[in-house]
Amino acid sequence: MKTCLILEGSYPYTHGGVSSWMDNYIKSTPDREYILWVIGAYEKDRGKFKYELPQNVTEVHEVFLDAALRVMPDRKQKIKLTDEQKMAISALIDCDRPDWEVLVKMFQDEHMNPANVLMSEDFLDTMTRLCMEKYPYVAYAETFHTMRSMLLPVLYLLSMEVPKADMYWIRRTACSAGTS
Hints:
Helix content: 40-55%
Structural class: alpha/beta
Distance between the termini: 20 Å
Number of domains: 2
Number of helices: 6
């Protein structure tokens, strides 16, 4: 069975804490095959691992958040969001419960460019409607630019190729009690 471990800001880039725990976990289950999908901060850290990877780690897919800043709009791609897509984006903006299936389909299956989505008229309309309904006394320009800068890395990650595995497991560096 192939297990994809989704790791953010930890193993194999840093020592201690979650990284040590993950290294020990992988080594203690040599009969399992692991694929690492690691999310790092800086592209300059590519391949600079602090751990020697065990033999049962068969693939490492590295994604870096600073690369999201280099996402350029595709002038050929015209974005027209469906009502369902607008609802999913609106829920994401509002920190509600977005329909992740819709969002994944947008960026994985339909290959929407994150910059194009964030610069689309439909995003602007969705953002404006949400601000008028829920945040009428908050400066719109600040909210708009803050939200776009917060969403870019999320949409960028959604657009990345997902490693193929039988099971996916997320381990975050900062967890609340009882979550992993």
